[in-house]
Design a protein that fits this description.
The protein has 351 residues and is of the alpha+beta class. The protein is 27% helix and 28% strand. It has eight helices and 19 strands.
Amino acid sequence: MKKKTRFRTKSKDLSYRIKRISLALLLCLTGILTAGCTRERETTPITKSGFYFDTVIQITLYDDRQEALIDDCFAMAAEYEHLLSRTVADSDISRINQSQGAPITVSDDTISVLEAGLSYCELSGGAFDITLGAVIDLWDIKNNPGVLPAQEDLAMALDSVGYEAVTIDGNEVTLTNPEAKVDLGAISKGWIADRMKEYLNEQGVTEGILNLGGNVLVLGPKSDGSAYRIGLQKPFDQDGSLLLSVDIADGTVVTSGNYQRYFELDGTIYHHIFDPDTGYPYQNGLLSVTIVCPKSVDGDGLSTTCFALGLTEGLALIERLPDTEAVFITEDFEVVTSSGMGDTIPYEILE
């Protein structure tokens, strides 16, 4: 049975234009798939995958002579994982979390990612928070068989949350709340994708696709000047069916959603994007937020921030930011886009 979903675009004066579109299947959004290059090429595209940051990384370059550069990118991923993952025992982030409030000297790269994370903590008014580590551990969504945490345990974890506890002085990081636990999972993949792109561009590579577990970043226009078509999947769809496609010649497409890591209990989805005020996953009527912008670190930070803020505040934030567009999917499968989608960013609803 076909379902109708409402497609809604936000106009420049913040009013809405509404279209009704019939789709063959229930429309929703999960992650991102990259559509292949359709033109014939003189060289064979090469794609390689690796597993880092608890996710699959896939890199495609359109010249088979560039395979060594992909290996260099994987080496970068391993290096950054060792710096930034709080599950690596001797990483910079683990050392900060184990410091009990003592100042810890860390690398320039770690400082850069921390500062990026803190900037989104401030932009969101605390709805995005990089000190949710204890709450994340308590819920353990990936391995949770469907059990809610005890209220007293959640209250204790919440006592450790508050990004204001993270202070930076040069390369020294201090937690003024010794119980705070930094987690950069909501921002680090985007930052790393940007570093990979910078490296590849420096090596003369300007055509290709980086996919870091749903953070898609393209290296520049194809050699014929055309854009890449990035497909957005339907949420919870086991077959990987696509909801819509977005065309970008340069930049990033990043999604945050409640379907990526979750369990269901008594009809409620408990997912991995947590409210720092309650310690529970956000329940705000959204399935996902996709950001289209130049830098993947901003796509990472904004997708989580806008999901946390909800549709009205998240959309208002996007409208204030230059060179940034968004696609929101509500729990009733309505697609809401910022004003530049369709104008500056071509896209297509797929039936």
